[in-house]
Amino acid sequence: VTAQPEPSQTEIALLATAVAQDHGDALSASRSLFSLPPGITYLDGNSLGAKPASVNARVNACIDDEWGASLIRSWNDHGWWDKARNLGDRLGRLIGAAPGQTLLTDNLSVNLFKAVASAIRMRADRSLILADRTSFPSDLYVLEGVVSLFPQVSLVLSETPDDSLQILRDRGSDVAVVLFNHIDFKTARRLPMHEFTEAAHNVGALTIWDLAHSIGAIPISLDRCDVDFAVGCTYKYVNGGPGAPGFIYVASRLQQPTQREQSAQQQSGQQQSGQQQSGQRQSASQPIQGWWAHADPFAFETSFRPIDNVMAFATGTQPILSMVALEASLDIWDDVDMNAVETKAGALTDFFIHAVNTLAADARIIAQLRCGSPADATVRGSHVIFHHEHGYPIMRALIDSGVIGDFRAPDVLRFGFAPLYNTFAETLHAAKVLVHIVATKAWEAPEFNIRGAVT
Ligand SMILES: Cc1ncc(COP(=O)(O)O)c(C=O)c1O
Known about the structure:
Helix content: 40-55%
Number of helices: 14
Bound molecules: pyridoxal-5'-phosphate
């Protein structure tokens, strides 16, 4: 499938805008820090971010010099043991977290389990976990799993995040913890973190924020918003690579006191307080308590004694090669101005929506492609969706043309814009190819209608 060869007046005007925007792009230099295959317009950085150009050398050095030459000494000599915490602190800059609160470990789903279980133990006198049906479904599966382990707790699913606020007003005193997805994985709607966290705190509930689609797309201020827990992944906008480790944020005000209390208690063999006997914990403590979270892991004590810092949220041995790959991307992110990222995210997504709508109007197919993302960039993330009843084969045809986005059932065409490397010119190209495929019905070809396992 190829786009129309003759540019229309609309296309010429859009091209002029794209050229001007690319010319004034404050982040244009960062594109060269990534390896992108020629001929591909990559609009899926919100699912799997592009590869930092330096990653091969970085991982190879770890394989040869650290694993190969230093062998097991690398746990000390090359800082392997401390990577989860050190990289967590580096990542903290992207999420507005002061050091000591973010741990790079496991994946988002496992970290969510830890956060919810911790929250329930801290609100043992309350019976509800609250989430909304627009959450990423895997998050809801995790919550169901947690509920199956805590017989006194049930899961309440509201229809939307706004409905969750209503439930907090109506039944807030029963709610132990509420989950919010910061940016909706389908629509890209952005929730006001401060306001929603405050609504939960007003009724004594704890908050967990899923940052999967916001980290690396917009500035995040976990500390300033007084968030309790947050979880996220680093393989999307952060460019950590396939299966890159996830992270968990635990506000320091929740971490410190009880862990000190607990270890003091366990060391002195004191009886547990009445609150702890009833299951209620003063501060966060997660139940997958492996040796990496132990206060003295190499003492190999028979009983668990949590360490007095964010490592208490680790479990077992960390994936060092994946962490080293992520380091290559953090070398880039360390210097990035997140306000510039947000500005460009808004401009790219605005331009894409405008280009698709304008070109679709010219092609008389405007009614077929309905934008499902907020029109206002300040309440949107860095991806955009269009609905079309034949979304799946349309996305297959787009990918066949070199424009890579993704499809989300039942009818969502999703395009992620990575401000560090996507350009306005390729954004326009993607809009033209999309409109062309819909207008010509190129998606009807049988090869685009065969479903793969991953969409
Ligand atoms: C919003 C959101 N939450 C949770 C997850 C699950 O993350 P993981 O598979 O890394 O546990 C994803 C994965 O894409 C996601 O997009």
